[in-house]
Amino acid sequence: MKDFAIRANKLKKIYSSEFEKIVALKEIDVEIKKGEFVTIMGPSGAGKTTFLNLVGCLDRPTSGKLDILGCDPAKSNEEKLCRIRIEKIGFVFEDFFLISSLNSLENVQLPLIFARNFKNNTNPETLLKRVGLDHRLTHFPNELSGGELQRVAVARALVNNPQILLADEPTGNLDTKNAQGLFDLFRELNREEGLTIVVATHNIRLGHSTDRIIHLNDGKIEQDERLVK
Amino acid sequence: MKFFVLAYKNLKRRKSRSFLTIGGVAVAVAVLVCLLGFNAGYQEALTSDVDKMGYQVLVTAKGCPYEAATRVLKGEAGLKFIDEDIYKQIISDPDIDKITPLLVQLVYDPEKSDGKGGFDSYSGIERSYMELKPNVKLKSGEWFSSDDADEVILGYDKAESIQKKLQKTVGDKISIPGEDTNLVIVGIFEKTASLEDGDFFLPLKTAQRIFEIEGKLTSIGIKLKQIDRLQAFEERLYPIASIQVISMSQVKGTILNLVNSAKILIMSVAFIAIFVAIIGVINTILMSVFERTQEIGIMKAIGASKLDIFKLIWIETLIICTLGGIFGSIIAIFGGNFTELLVRKVMPYAPGGRLLLITPELLLFSFFGVIIIGIISGLYPAFRAASMRPIEVIRSGE
Ligand SMILES: Nc1ncnc2c1ncn2[C@@H]1O[C@H](COP(=O)(O)OP(=O)(O)OP(=O)(O)O)[C@@H](O)[C@H]1O
Ligand SMILES: [Mg+2]
């Protein structure tokens, strides 16, 4: 059991508004091992973002069981979810979502402000060096290219030494070369640190460079493809 | 990096808006400080003015007692005259400790105020004047050589301006505009910080002769042996039909009452200023919260708790209010002179001392007042920001 980073049992998510109910995830069963590098693929509206948000403790499931490194988000209060997000999970978004008033270094330092007594972190400068941006420490987001922005975002996601890195279409705004570079970086982190990585993407070629592809469609797992190297 | 730095950086991002909001707070603080400072200062200045006058009781011709009193306080003439005989009649009253006759006359000087023209006040006095006024002393020169000499003693400020304009001082001769007589300056009074510093003082008889009002006075200043004998004293003077007795403490009370009603008006203006400043602060912070919906969502996604976001927004509000408080205090200290000028124009009677008393306690009080206001006005925007949900925000960004 300790082997699993993420385990979902009949995981269900319904978005209900005044007028309708949208079932975004229909009782999904999935297990992701520690140290796995997994891609989630599927057409738009398949539920990829929904799944990542549940795993990332940004949202709560409607029903079903979810186990993230031994924690159950359904049974945790807001404060606890916050701790999980800070201590165990790093998030990377398609739109980078850097804070425009802060430079690269400060953006990477930002999660440390919220971490309070949690001190298991990596030096932000070391991290930026690691993602190849040691010459861009004092640049602001509007002075950086898309590829550089996403690498700052990755550094920010890693500053609290998370065990799981979640990336929602991280290459959506990048060209082919930068997209490949980012996946290479992911692979390196996965190999060297044993980081569990879950990436949602539309890019089949990039998906095939990972360990496993989970095909989602209409809220269900259509195919769970393990790639042998 | 700390919350404070983060909050500061955000305020810096919208420089002009933050600056205007801080300005609004600063104005509100400045108005408050000036107002409260005025409150304390006016009362003190008026009291010291009345005390410096030395009289507890003033005898004048019948008329409006408060008009008479303020005119005397201001060193103005325009009063009806009383007969010198009355002075002689009451001088032996058993309750009187000290008594002095006064004749105040205004003379128009076309050269005054750089040719704009204005009135100068000439007071006819006797030696007893100096006994009644505890802080009137000769700075240089000496008292009149005789009680009808063509001599003049200058108030401190008047002496300075004459020295500067005419290069004349003790021993020199000056003339009264419109009169033939020349007067020798025999002495200069020390500064009393009252309006009399700007006056000319002549021997009473000389004044009566020059202004051709022999045997007349404008008022009689009296200090009683015991102030609680005032009523008995007043009753004894009652039969003299042409005069009235004015007690200065009464006058003080009446002036303060008058000022109080004006103060209520100004207070309401101050409250409006503070109210507008609060709305301004809330508006600025709320706007920046809404503009940063996405950013706040991101911070939550990377681990910020509700409390963290609350703190962040709250600190921004506090920075605005603190800076506003500091600038407001500076404005109050340096703009106080301007306010004083304004107050002197609109107030029924403005005493000679400083009207605005800005003490450290007052500044501290206003400063903490504005911080408390900041704490309160930051609550709502901070609460709004804290309750934003991260996924909605991130979704809206996609
Ligand atoms: N907050 C929400 N409220 C209502 N419906 C939602 C909400 N979020 C997602 N949905 C719906 O749930 C379904 C799954 O959405 P989700 O964002 O998970 O898809 P996705 O696979 O990430 O798609 P894409 O590739 O376009 O990002 C969609 O039909 C979407 O409209
Ligand atoms: Mg999506």
Automatic annotation (TrEMBL), chain A:
Keyword set includes ATP-binding: yes
Which segments does the entry list as coiled coil? Answer: none
Short name of one Pfam family: ABC_tran
UniProt keywords, alphabetically: ATP-binding, Nucleotide-binding, Transport
Q: Which GO terms describe its cellular component?
A: membrane protein complex
Please state every residue range assigned to the domain named ABC transporter: 6-228
Q: Looking at the record's lineage, which domain of life comes first? A: Bacteria
List the molecular function annotations (GO) for this entry: ATP binding; ATP hydrolysis activity; transmembrane transporter activity
Query: By its UniProt entry, which Gene3D superfamilies does this protein fall under?
Result: P-loop containing nucleotide triphosphate hydrolases
Q: Which family does it belong to?
A: Belongs to the ABC transporter superfamily. Macrolide exporter (TC 3.A.1.122) family.
Sorted alphabetically, which PANTHER family does this protein's record hold?
ABC TRANSPORTER ATP-BINDING PROTEIN MG467-RELATED, LIPOPROTEIN-RELEASING SYSTEM ATP-BINDING PROTEIN LOLD
**Protein name (Swiss-Prot/TrEMBL):** ABC transporter ATP-binding protein
From TrEMBL, chain B:
Question: Which segments constitute the ABC3 transporter permease C-terminal domain?
Answer: 268-389
Q: Where does it mainly reside?
A: membrane
Which membrane topology term applies here?
Multi-pass membrane protein
Q: Where are the transmembrane segments?
A: 20-42, 264-290, 311-335, 355-380
Q: Which InterPro entries match?
A: ABC3_permease_C, MacB_PCD, Macrolide_Exporter_MacB
Where found in the cell? Cell membrane
Q: Which GO terms describe its cellular component?
A: plasma membrane
Coiled coil (UniProt feature): none
Q: Which UniProt keywords apply?
A: Cell membrane, Membrane, Transmembrane, Transmembrane helix
- Residue intervals of the MacB-like periplasmic core domain: 18-237
One GO molecular-function entry: transmembrane transporter activity
Q: Please name one Pfam family that this protein belongs to.
A: MacB_PCD
| Family (UniProt) | Belongs to the ABC-4 integral membrane protein family.
What this protein is called in its record is ABC transporter permease
Q: Which species does this protein come from? A: Candidatus Sediminicultor quintus
